[in-house]
Design brief:
31% helix; elongated; single chain; three-stranded antiparallel sheet; alpha+beta; five-stranded antiparallel sheet
Amino acid sequence: MSKRCDSTVAFYSDTDAEAIKRIKCDLEAWSQDKKGYSKLSDYFLALIGAEELVEKLHLEFSSITYNLPQYIEIAMHTTDLPPCGFFDVVAHHYGVEYVFIAEEPCTGLFINTDMKGRFLLPNKYRVTFLYDRSYGGTPYEEMLEDAEGYPACFKTEAEIVDFFKLYGFKVESYGDIESIINPDFICIDVFERVYVTRQ
C-alpha cells in the first residue's frame, strides 16, 4: 500500500482578520491567472515564495473552506508526512497561526493539534474496521457491517466505550477495550498532539 498522508489545516488570526482575507484573495487568484501552474497548491507555494517545496512535498489540495473572518480550512494530501513546511511558510508569510489534523495509517501517524476543537474536529480515537478475514459469526459482525468500510472517530474515551457497549461488548474503560479487541477485525489509533519534524 502506498503512503498517503491526509491533512487538514486551519489558518487563523485572533488579531488580524485582514490576513485571513489576504490568504483567500491569493488562493482565488489562481482561477483568474494560473501562471502556468496546473495545480492550485503549486501556484500558491510559488506565490508566497516557497516554490522549492513543490517537488519536495507533492502537495495536492482536496478542498478549501472559507470561514471568514475567523479562519480558512484547507484539506490536502501528500505522499508522506504532514506538510509542516508548507504550514510554517504560510503562517510566516501572512502573519497567522495554524492548527492541523493529519493521518497516515501505513506508518501509524495520527496527529491533532486542535484537541479542543476550536477550528477542527477534536478527534482523539480512530477505529478502523478490517475486512481481510471472514467476520461472520464473530462479535464484530454487526459492527463491521454497519461501518461499511469507513473508519469511526471519537472525541473522548467515554464515547468510544459507549460505542463498543452499543454492540454488546462488556467494557467500562478504554483499557477494557484494548484488552478484548481482536486485531484481525479492529484497529484503534490514538491521535497525539505531537509535532513532527518540520519539512
